[in-house]
């Protein structure tokens, strides 16, 4: 018998590079303070408190900073990314911004595959962090194109839509759910009745929903879903392969297919939010609190208000927590541009009126679709 009976793939230089890359990513987390939990003003007599966790203060300006950090660590410890390897992602913008940041941090090339309609502000940020943007005309094509590019250059398709739910430790380890409950500890109702989030990859809802069950909290999880997104119908019908084939206008949430990282079993309620309602709510948040946020935060606020109205109607007192997903400065040329809104055929006035009535009277009378 000739030849070796075993194969050793270890390489001191490779292992050393991976160790240093992990140290750099972990050091970024160590430098970052926790994100703030802001109170949204409601009449005191309601005895219902609403809080928004401000994820826009992360170094890359969005909730996706947490996800990108987890995805890079996941890829590094699995041996999927090595020195000099190009990392490729399919993204509508914010995840790619954060991943470009981490790619530059560990010194690897990064390519973001995204719809051509992605906001120019996000494109600028990706390029500022050294990433390259590769555009597709049809939103659903981002997956196959990202896979193709990764194979073509011998790189790694990091694939947030598949790996988001498994890259984050839902049991703890400083995830967003742990942070929420730590920050709520001294509030009047420290265990929320609801936590409200959107779904893009499904990773955030999976992490929070699993944590709620693991810690045996009574808190329920609501997921807001914009127009043309596949998540709500897939959740309601139990159809994991449901597709719409239409991209979402609310960047960061909503997908044309039910993504592999979406875990329907941890979701207690889903709320369909019209795109005009999301944008009206984002603008309403800025007008009433000074907080400038993106459309996905508007979707969250719309869902929160509907749930508060239900609590009031049922005589329930308590708290609701949601997220500020990213800052509104990324959407100057879209959600905060009246010309863009008009070109999309959206009328924000009825939705703004609904929100104004709600915060003054507590009634919830949304426009008829």
- Following the backbone from N to C, one meets helices and strands in this order, namely HEEHEHEHEHEHHEHEHEHHEHH
Task: Please identify the structural class as seen in this structure.
Answer: alpha/beta
Query: Mean pLDDT, as a whole number?
Result: 93
Helix proportion range = 40-55%
Strand content: 5-15%
> CATH topology of the largest domain, which one?
Rossmann fold
Give the number of DSSP strands: 10
Report the principal-axis shape: globular
Largest sheet features: 6 strands, mixed
| Span between termini | 76 Å
The CATH architecture designation of the largest domain is 3-Layer(aba) Sandwich
The number of helical runs is 13
Domain count: the total is 2
Low-confidence stretches: none
Query: What oligomeric state is this?
Result: single chain
CATH class of the largest domain: Alpha Beta
Radius of gyration: 21 Å
Q: Reading side by side through the largest sheet, how are the strands ordered? A: 1-2-10-7-8-9
Short summary:
The protein contains 13 helices and ten strands. With 369 residues, the protein is an alpha/beta fold. The strands form two sheets. It has a six-stranded mixed β-sheet, with helices on both faces. Strands 5-4-3-6 form a four-stranded parallel β-sheet, with helices on both faces.
């Amino acid at each position: 018998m000739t030849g070796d009976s075993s194969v050793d793939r270890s390489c001191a230089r490779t292992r050393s590079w991976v160790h240093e890359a992990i140290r750099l990513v972990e050091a970024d987390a160590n430098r970052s303070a926790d994100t703030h939990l802001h109170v949204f003003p409601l009449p005191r007599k309601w005895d219902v408190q609403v809080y928004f966790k401000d994820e826009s203060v992360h170094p890359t300006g969005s909730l996706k900073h947490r996800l990108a950090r987890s995805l890079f660590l996941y890829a590094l410890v699995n041996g999927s990314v090595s020195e000099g390897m190009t990392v490729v992602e399919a993204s509508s913008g914010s995840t790619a911004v954060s991943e470009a940041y981490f790619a530059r941090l560990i010194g690897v090339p990064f390519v973001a595959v995204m719809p051509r309609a992605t906001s120019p502000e996000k494109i600028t940020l990706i390029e500022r962090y050294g990433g390259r943007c590769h555009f597709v005309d049809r939103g659903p094509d981002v997956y196959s194109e990202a896979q193709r590019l990764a194979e073509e250059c011998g790189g790694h398709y990091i694939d947030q839509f598949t790996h988001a739910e498994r890259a984050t430790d839902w049991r703890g380890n400083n995830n967003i759910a742990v942070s929420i409950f730590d920050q709520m500890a001294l509030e009047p109702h420290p265990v929320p009745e609801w936590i409200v989030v959107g779904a893009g990859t499904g990773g955030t809802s999976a992490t929070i929903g699993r944590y709620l069950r693991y810690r045996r909290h009574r808190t329920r999880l609501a997921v807001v879903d914009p127009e043309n997104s596949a998540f709500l119908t897939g959740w309601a019908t139990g159809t994991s392969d449901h597709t719409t084939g239409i991209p979402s206008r609310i960047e960061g949430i909503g997908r044309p297919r039910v993504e592999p990282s979406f875990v329907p079993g941890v979701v207690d309620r889903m709320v369909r939010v019209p795109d005009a309602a999301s944008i009206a709510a984002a603008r309403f948040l800025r007008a009433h609190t000074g907080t400038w946020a993106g459309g996905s935060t508007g979707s969250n606020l719309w869902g929160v208000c509907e749930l508060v109205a239900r609590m009031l109607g049922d005589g329930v007192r308590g708290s609701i927590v949601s997220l500020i997903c990213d800052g509104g400065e990324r959407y100057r040329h879209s959600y905060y541009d009246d010309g863009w809104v008009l070109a999309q055929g959206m009328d924000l006035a009825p939705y703004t009126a609904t929100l104004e009535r709600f915060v003054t009277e507590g009634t919830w009378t949304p426009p008829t679709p």
